[in-house]
Amino acid sequence: MYGQSGDPATKLNALMTRLDTTPMRVGGRQLTRSLALTGVLQTLYDQSLWTYLDQGLTGADRGNGAILLYFADAYLQRHADGTYGNLWNGAYDASFCLDFYSPPDIAAYDALGPSYTKASPVFGPWSQYSNLQCGLWPVKVKASPDPLPIKDAPPILLVGGTNDPATPYQDAMNVFHKVDGAVLLTREGNGHVSYGSSECSHTYEDDYLINLTLPQPGTVCST
To answer: How far is CA 60 from the centre of its chain?
Structure first.
């Protein structure tokens, strides 16, 4: 397994540093640091893909970046002819960039380096400038970016996974504290989103969507 002969985080950082200096040839293409981390990110979404994550990192460490590039292409919706799907080609930004204000000045993102690297030495530098695209998006945010408490709404079910690599559990907690009368269903386990990864969560969410029945406060499901 990857990292069996050493610390996996140290090996991963060393691999990414090598890709920064010398991108890895994969057929007629190159595996860059950015694409490699995109491939890693894709395989983190679902624990069933962790076997391929191990194979991808082991292969790249030995000079074969095909698996990581494959998963990067899957995440980015890259087709065999080099074209891309619509999700990351404007559709996502058209919605996401209206959720909060992003400064257009690149210096604002330069200043994020230390805090992002401290939060995640691997993914921090990779995502440091990710919101600059929203800062340059032609349609600007019109509403205040400050979170507003929600009062007098019908009962709302919130669901958060404790080890979700894409939408952290802390975000679910933050929203929960802003919504009066809400119930937070906690799914303990790995993977992104809870509906398809936990029969327990699936049942509670169906019951809410079909019958508007909420679980008891403090309910915990496992994956």
So the answer is: 22
